[in-house]
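$ ./design --mode recover --in tokens.txt
reading tokens...
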């Protein structure tokens, strides 16, 4: 099954159209940042790198428009974690829960690794 179909199935379980739209956008953003990596290859490090990216956006855009609010940042992480847990239950992803919960990297090296990977992926 295609990744986009999985995203649509995942968000389809939520009743609110606003939640479905936001979660779909958040999961697609995450998947874009991992550079099209197959779901089976996603790790807790990828989620940690996404969190680092969100932290970097907060720091870089401090006092500017385009910055994520704390609640938006939390929603993005919640959406990604929920998607990965759902995908694992569907048998298309295998990220241990302790890795997902511990995805709290805040160093810039994880962010840079993810950005380099994305640039190399067409």
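writing sequence...
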């Amino acid at each position: 099954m295609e990744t986009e179909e999985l995203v649509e199935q995942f968000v389809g379980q939520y009743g609110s159209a606003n939640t479905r739209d936001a979660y779909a956008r958040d999961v697609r953003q995450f998947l874009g940042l991992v550079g099209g990596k197959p779901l089976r290859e996603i790790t807790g490090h990828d989620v940690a790198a996404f969190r680092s990216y969100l932290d970097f956006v907060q720091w870089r855009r401090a006092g500017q428009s385009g910055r994520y609010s704390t609640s938006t940042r939390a929603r993005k992480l919640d959406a990604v974690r929920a998607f990965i847990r759902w995908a694992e239950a569907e048998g298309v992803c295998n990220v241990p829960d302790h890795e997902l919960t511990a995805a709290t990297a805040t160093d810039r090296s994880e962010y840079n690794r993810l950005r380099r990977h994305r640039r190399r992926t067409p």
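exit 0
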